[in-house]
Amino acid sequence: MGPGEAGGRRRAGGALGPHQSERRSDPVGTPDGSGPDAAEEDPRKRPRRRGDALNAAIFEAVLAELKETGYARLTMERVAERARTGKASLYRRWPNRARLVMEAVYHVVPRYMDAPDTGSLRGDLLELFRGVALLLEGPTGEAMRGVLGEVLHDPEVAEQIRSASRGESLAQIRRVADRAVARGEVRAEALTPRRLEAGHAVMRHHFLFQGTPITDRVIEEVVDEVVLPLFTAPPPG
């Protein structure tokens, strides 16, 4: 399959060309009436939400703050105001903003990284990493930069982030790899953890040092020059 057969390419500026397949749109936004000014009303008039409903409102507020002001200016107070809840509600759930931001990222990951079954390993990988590119180009990328800075300077935060990790990236590419094994495209014993991690590692490296947008050409190079050769190589040892 040629490079242009799995959804077309994006231009360097991120706009779709005339023959491109449309990438999944970014659903992250600010809910109506959820801006910081909303908290100036009588607290007794705030919506009474608990559990998943409250968490979802908080996560969407975090993503909106990341998009609007960036990680450096994000505070628990501003998130609480935007989510129309009390700051104490945040601190009961998350000890600091790094943990809160990571939870918000996990909240949005399934919107992008649930790669459809295209019928081939290459097609599945292209769709998966297009979703990764969208994540990195939005609030999640801003979160990664900010949390990385805190992790490098605060061992306690680093340990909290490690302990809260859910392994979403590895789980998503494992699902893609398992489909390829079922089709007979690759051998299960060839799919070591290091090989499974390689594609995401290259994408993150490109994002941190080259920035965005991450074009389809870059995605195809990651798939064709890194992931596919590793997956189809003989098992180690």
From TrEMBL:
<feature type="DNA-binding region" description="H-T-H motif">
    <location>
        <begin position="75"/>
        <end position="94"/>
    </location>
</feature>
<dbReference type="Pfam" id="PF16859">
    <property type="entry name" value="TetR_C_11"/>
</dbReference>
<dbReference type="InterPro" id="IPR011075">
    <property type="entry name" value="TetR_C"/>
</dbReference>
<dbReference type="Pfam" id="PF00440">
    <property type="entry name" value="TetR_N"/>
</dbReference>
<keyword id="KW-0238">DNA-binding</keyword>
<dbReference type="InterPro" id="IPR009057">
    <property type="entry name" value="Homeodomain-like_sf"/>
</dbReference>
<keyword id="KW-0804">Transcription</keyword>
<feature type="domain" description="HTH tetR-type">
    <location>
        <begin position="52"/>
        <end position="112"/>
    </location>
</feature>
<dbReference type="InterPro" id="IPR036271">
    <property type="entry name" value="Tet_transcr_reg_TetR-rel_C_sf"/>
</dbReference>
<protein>
    <submittedName>
        <fullName>TetR/AcrR family transcriptional regulator</fullName>
    </submittedName>
</protein>
<keyword id="KW-0805">Transcription regulation</keyword>
<feature type="region of interest" description="Disordered">
    <location>
        <begin position="1"/>
        <end position="51"/>
    </location>
</feature>
<dbReference type="InterPro" id="IPR001647">
    <property type="entry name" value="HTH_TetR"/>
</dbReference>
<dbReference type="InterPro" id="IPR050109">
    <property type="entry name" value="HTH-type_TetR-like_transc_reg"/>
</dbReference>
